[in-house]
Amino acid sequence: MLTIHHLRIGRSIFTVWLLEELGVEYELVEYHRNPETMRAPPELREVHPLGKSPVIEDDGLLLSESGAITAYLLHKYDPQGKFGPDDGDAAWAEYTQWLHYPEGSVFVPLLLKLLSTRAGGEQPLLDGFADPEVKLHFDHISDKLGDNDFILGERITGADFGITYMVSMAERLGLLAPYPTLADYLARNLARPAFQRALERAVE
Ligand SMILES: N[C@@H](CCC(=O)N[C@@H](CS)C(=O)NCC(=O)O)C(=O)O
User: Fold this and answer.
1) What is the mean pLDDT of residues 61-67?
2) 44: how many CB neighbours lie within 10 A of its CB?
């Protein structure tokens, strides 16, 4: 059976959500962050050398990186392509771009905002870079979403899992006020039965 190594407070709940959407059976191993450093516990390094989450084990495969895990899970467990194309055409290329964009580009400015908030007070070096980048990326995400329910249109795809994580992080950082449609998108996705089932299995 597939195993997911889930670290509380972070992105792996969004991979658990995908497993629930797919109806894949899985075992969940939960880890707690060090309350002082907020870093993962050393046990996660016994699973994977990076000691980060999510990590999955499936049929002898050990896989890290949430975007790669999404691509793998959909290739293996969504042969009908319900959650996105898998055939190398233009729609697949655009889907792949949106699948990797959250971790590849959106996360860093959000992390800088998180660090600047934790540092407290004025942080001109961090905020001077992060603030316009956050605006750039969330304007872009919001423009792409438009009036649609999901980032690539009217049906959920693999790209929505990473985008939802970024939007949830922006919400936690108090950055969503200019983006009411993204706040609605987040609320809609978190209300999905599969996300609610994920929360029953794994505490966020
Ligand atoms: N790019 C990786 C990032 C993995 C990552 O940094 N995960 C965080 C949790 S959200 C983590 O394990 N942090 C704990 C630590 O670094 O100590 C992915 O997409 O999976």
Assistant:
1) 98
2) 19
Q: Hunting for tokens 């084990």 — which residue is that?
A: 57
Determine what percent of the chain is predicted with pLDDT higher than 90. 96
Residues with CB under 6 A from ligand 1: 7, 10-11, 39-40, 52-54, 65-67, 103
Superfamily covering domain 2-82+193-201: Glutaredoxin (3.40.30.10)
With 80 as the cut, is the pLDDT of residue 204 above it? no
Range 50-55 average pLDDT: 98
Expressed in angstroms and rounded, the spacing between residue 53 Cα and the centre of ligand 1 is 5
Domain residue ranges in the chain? 2-82+193-201, 90-190
% of the chain with per-residue pLDDT over 70: 100
Just give the CATH number of 90-190: 1.20.1050.10
Q: What is the end-to-end Cα distance of the chain in Å, rounded? A: 22
Name the percent of the chain in helix, strand, coil, to the closest 5. 55, 10, 35
Q: pTM for this one?
A: 0.96
Distance 98 CA to ligand 1 centre (A): 19
